[in-house]
């Protein structure tokens, strides 16, 4: 360790922005980046409302909601109070053999909000783990029913379900960031990419393709798992909700469970509380996370119907063998319950509709820029898709010059603003998307 690093580690005085950046470069990995990351990371000193305050004094409007989670913005007084109250009572206690008020309150609220009879709640500590739990639920359900041959899952291409092992195996095998591991991952069944367009008519040929694929593999399928309506990190693609109804009917006909990954889409992001509601469909298992705590703490949940829970409990091995150390962390549960209360007690739907209207209107000129393949909006999601991979550092700099934090990737320049974004914030985000697309379109 260098003298600088040793001195900094021992020093209790606040670090300067340059010191933070240097220590970060020396010691820290960042997601989806090499170590050290040649692009570097911006030191943040604080955040409030929709603004991120950098260590050098600049403020940026957060167009990303901290990877789609901070729907109420930062430093929210209601969530702060919930965290402080719970911290004074207990920050954590193991969930094995014990329970507590924050967990049962959160489970009751989730069961009341979720579509249909998704009333059984397994709490975990990340979205990827909630997918792992969903897979275990589906496999163990059929094992308990005496059908162990039903051990594979079906999904469609273009998806992304997380970075843990089963989650990676269900993400697109060719075009996701996980293709490196494809030879080592469990082999599941992939249908073709769902046709693009939220309002596009149903492609009957694709519907027949789904029918053939499910029917062909029904004897070995435990479940079908998809991201409903919006495929997130796999490409920010929107699809017609009717395909979810088709999947529900096929799963019912062929004796297959249906799993919806609502980690990115849940809690209002698409204009409905859950994206499944666009189709009027209830899955057997549903994963939620990201916005669950309003971006304060890591927490996720896997919900299932009584049929699934009772099916597992009736088997030779009635327990679901999964138990994260921080399962049902009281601090996270208390903040999550307060965050969901803010949603249900406020006009989240009106706010999300206003975001969609503002961004759709302001981005109309962006669609005409060189290199722009498509501009699309749905709920509090705006996507500018380019016709080539984006120089992400260059595009992000262009957005920062407009006072906005965006994180482009692949061909996508997109925003998922906090629901509390003001008209001024949204105008700035639209200008930043335009500027980033303009920079990305330059040869």
From TrEMBL:
<dbReference type="GO" id="GO:0005737">
    <property type="term" value="C:cytoplasm"/>
</dbReference>
<feature type="binding site">
    <location>
        <position position="261"/>
    </location>
    <ligand>
        <name>pyridoxal 5'-phosphate</name>
    </ligand>
</feature>
<feature type="modified residue" description="N6-(pyridoxal phosphate)lysine">
    <location>
        <position position="290"/>
    </location>
</feature>
<feature type="binding site">
    <location>
        <begin position="324"/>
        <end position="325"/>
    </location>
    <ligand>
        <name>pyridoxal 5'-phosphate</name>
    </ligand>
</feature>
<feature type="binding site">
    <location>
        <position position="323"/>
    </location>
    <ligand>
        <name>substrate</name>
    </ligand>
</feature>
<dbReference type="InterPro" id="IPR015424">
    <property type="entry name" value="PyrdxlP-dep_Trfase"/>
</dbReference>
<dbReference type="Pfam" id="PF00202">
    <property type="entry name" value="Aminotran_3"/>
</dbReference>
<comment type="similarity">
    <text>Belongs to the class-III pyridoxal-phosphate-dependent aminotransferase family. BioA subfamily.</text>
</comment>
<dbReference type="InterPro" id="IPR015422">
    <property type="entry name" value="PyrdxlP-dep_Trfase_small"/>
</dbReference>
<keyword id="KW-0808">Transferase</keyword>
<dbReference type="InterPro" id="IPR005814">
    <property type="entry name" value="Aminotrans_3"/>
</dbReference>
<dbReference type="GO" id="GO:0009102">
    <property type="term" value="P:biotin biosynthetic process"/>
</dbReference>
<comment type="subunit">
    <text>Homodimer.</text>
</comment>
<dbReference type="GO" id="GO:0030170">
    <property type="term" value="F:pyridoxal phosphate binding"/>
</dbReference>
<keyword id="KW-0093">Biotin biosynthesis</keyword>
<feature type="binding site">
    <location>
        <position position="290"/>
    </location>
    <ligand>
        <name>substrate</name>
    </ligand>
</feature>
<keyword id="KW-0032">Aminotransferase</keyword>
<dbReference type="InterPro" id="IPR005815">
    <property type="entry name" value="BioA"/>
</dbReference>
<feature type="site" description="Participates in the substrate recognition with KAPA and in a stacking interaction with the adenine ring of SAM">
    <location>
        <position position="32"/>
    </location>
</feature>
<comment type="pathway">
    <text>Cofactor biosynthesis; biotin biosynthesis; 7,8-diaminononanoate from 8-amino-7-oxononanoate (SAM route): step 1/1.</text>
</comment>
<feature type="binding site">
    <location>
        <begin position="127"/>
        <end position="128"/>
    </location>
    <ligand>
        <name>pyridoxal 5'-phosphate</name>
    </ligand>
</feature>
<feature type="binding site">
    <location>
        <position position="67"/>
    </location>
    <ligand>
        <name>substrate</name>
    </ligand>
</feature>
<dbReference type="InterPro" id="IPR015421">
    <property type="entry name" value="PyrdxlP-dep_Trfase_major"/>
</dbReference>
<keyword id="KW-0949">S-adenosyl-L-methionine</keyword>
<keyword id="KW-0963">Cytoplasm</keyword>
<comment type="function">
    <text>Catalyzes the transfer of the alpha-amino group from S-adenosyl-L-methionine (SAM) to 7-keto-8-aminopelargonic acid (KAPA) to form 7,8-diaminopelargonic acid (DAPA). It is the only aminotransferase known to utilize SAM as an amino donor.</text>
</comment>
<feature type="binding site">
    <location>
        <position position="160"/>
    </location>
    <ligand>
        <name>substrate</name>
    </ligand>
</feature>
<dbReference type="InterPro" id="IPR049704">
    <property type="entry name" value="Aminotrans_3_PPA_site"/>
</dbReference>
<keyword id="KW-0663">Pyridoxal phosphate</keyword>
<protein>
    <recommendedName>
        <fullName>Adenosylmethionine-8-amino-7-oxononanoate aminotransferase</fullName>
        <ecNumber>2.6.1.62</ecNumber>
    </recommendedName>
</protein>
<feature type="binding site">
    <location>
        <position position="407"/>
    </location>
    <ligand>
        <name>substrate</name>
    </ligand>
</feature>
<dbReference type="GO" id="GO:0004015">
    <property type="term" value="F:adenosylmethionine-8-amino-7-oxononanoate transaminase activity"/>
</dbReference>
